[in-house]
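Methods: example folding runs. The two proteins below were folded one after another, and each record is reproduced exactly as written to the output file, sequence line first and structure-token line second.
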Amino acid sequence: MKVLKFGGSSVGTPDRIKGVKKIIDAVKGPCVVIVSAFEGVTDSLKKISELAVVRNEEYKTLLEESLIMHRSFADELAGEADKAEVLSVVNLIFSELRYTLEGVFLLRDLSRHVLDQILSTGERLSSLIIASHLEHARLIDSREVIKTDDNFGNANVDYETTAMLIRKSLDQDDRRVIMAGFIASTANDETTTLGRGGSDYTAAIVAAALNAEALEIWTDTDGFMTADPKKVEKAYAIECLSYQEAIELSHFGAKVIYTPTLRPVYRQQIPVFVRNSFKPEEKGTIISSNPENGNKSPIKGISSIDHIDLVTLQGTAMVGVAGTSMRLFGALARHNISIVLITQASSEYSITFALNPPDTKLAVTAITSEFEKEIKYSRELNVLIEKDLSIIAIVGEKMKNTPGISATLFKSLSRNGISVIATAQGSSELNISVVIRNENLGRALNVIHDGFFLSKYKEMHICIAGIGFVGSSLLKQLHKQHEILLRDHKLKVNLLGVANSRKMLVSRK
């Protein structure tokens, strides 16, 4: 039994869904297919909800547009025998949604409970329509088998009950089973959602419950990349990762996979394949307990979080005082504030941690309340905030016991004039994280990528002054040998400028 998950971009149009059908049909043996809402639908439903709660009647227009889109998908994809029934169910789901939104509009109230009911319709619709497009596929409502608490918006899964219900509902002989990702329900059958990236999480929960032979995450990228390809032109797909490496890369901003996804499959050592639904012939990335490592570089990849705030609690009241860290992080935990990175001075004079900007104001309030005596009265503590920052993390299990990793990292940054504001490294030596200014992020990613030779080739940038007989002959040789140097020696020569005694031509790149 395999479990396949397809994200919103993979099912964004009827033509893409037909491509997904080919991928599913190519699977030998039974499989469970987890699908997200159609591309853009969840964001649209959220916007519709926000308009309704402020009594903006534009929500009705957007709702009607969504209905028309889903009806057109059903009309094109559903089999002729099932089309009338599928369209009837689509209309019924939208009728329920319309009544819910009218209540939001009248009451001007949009609780997380109600929002979960609204957002769940995206996956309910996509799973219905995609199931109708596949031959002999059985549709199972995820809310009937995945049980959670009532923490609406980011519900916590009851793994034991869920595993029992999944195994009871799914027959190993089922050829094709379709389920909606992202959605679940409480013990009282109230609809909940599993948070950002919840469809990945659903797929992992199902894979773990069935002890599947593999989990395949089909997305719109070639797998985990050595860096963000939008920021680093030379980034390429990583062939294999350990679970720990994948968790670290995901935590520090790699958006390929939702971090909690790896927890259920890691426990049972189920391999995860991250592949591109637009290039099904590509291998993608394999995540397993014992990945082969043909990479010569000691690091596997570079990940980044674009916008973070750095909060520092410092002062003499912390020095030699037991329990300060417990008070600090306890105050943050009571307000459900997640911390991205922590670093502490060995003198115990300060503790610095990184937060997502929306949490900063609440965090400062919590800290000020907890340390009111030390901050307000004795004035032995201060809270400092730095904004417009980014985190870069280099990740790789081969970093352990390899000397010079930190030196290469900091040398790459310093020789390009990039200052490091804070740094952190775990004792496992699995990652090193640095905090820098936002404005330097793109440049920093590229110089680190080059510094560790995380490229399929090395690059040499040259300028030629003098293009007489010798210079022009050299240019002809470089042009002629360009492909041979790249193929046989993994060396790419880039001509950045030429000059003679009268003129100069320089590449803008």
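Second run, written to the same file directly after the first:
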Amino acid sequence: SNKSFSIMPLGYLREPIFNLNRAEFIYTTKGPEIHSLLKNYNTKYIQSNFQIVKYNKNGVIEKQSEIYKSKTQRLVAFSGIANPEHFFKILNKLGVEVDEKIIFNNHHTYKLDGSDLKQSDNIIYITTYKDYVKLKELKIEIYILEMNFILNDSELLKTIREKINEN
């Protein structure tokens, strides 16, 4: 049959949306308004908070911080995720003023030869953690927008405990 279906989360290598029927809990992260594909499901909005952390050239968190740049430096925000506008919107909400935005395709494989991202003392980068993981070999100082979920759901915890005890 030519039945079309969407995958959640939207993207490649995902499950058909009707498989949500077997889910006991469905959480959304992009805001309390529910995506139209989820209207028929019992969803809960999970709160998240964002912070900016700086990773040094060895991939170690140097400090949780504001972004410090000199007058000669430019702040470049880049992303290779499915919805980069959400990333830029959060930066804006946090008061981070970027000088340039670079959008790569989703699941972009970063080239380490400097053709994707110039390594220069005049450029400071900020990106998502998903992008950073692909860049560890680059050995640059970089700021990351980290997302932390605030999961305070006693029903979920109770269900997890029951499932563990069943096994």
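Comment on the second run: The mean pLDDT is 83.
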